[in-house]
Amino acid sequence: MTRTVKSVGGANGTVGTVSVESVADILELELQTVIDEWLIRVEREPDLKHIPLSFEERTGHLSYLLHDVINRLRLDSGTKAPISKAAADHGDLRHKQGYTVAMAVGESRLLQVSIFYDAAQQRKTIGIQRAASRHCDDRGRGGCAVEGAAERVRASSILIED
Q: pTM here?
């Protein structure tokens, strides 16, 4: 669900609009990125890597679990979320594959880290886009390319982070 909100954009007080996507929408769009990030983290964990699993055996459950999360995020506030069948099935499968409870919890923690990492990356991207938009608003509409301003903001943020 994308919604448009009014925003005071430039230093001169200009008002613009910004499209805001829900966390569920962003997670849905970034599903494969989250899975890829999760797999990188899992492969760094000796306890988890110790259990030899194929790519499908290791990651096949994630799209189901993440769709459960997405559906929960889309519930109206105050609505009780149903128990996740995907999570229960996954726990049973991991137990049969030789995982301990601690390993399953660790794997789940890595999924949370991957989701939060992706959300932070999305927030950074949105911040760059907003800064570029403000830069254009500050200079006036004539001749200012958002892409050019975004590149300048991105370049300056790289210098600041290093």
A: 0.65
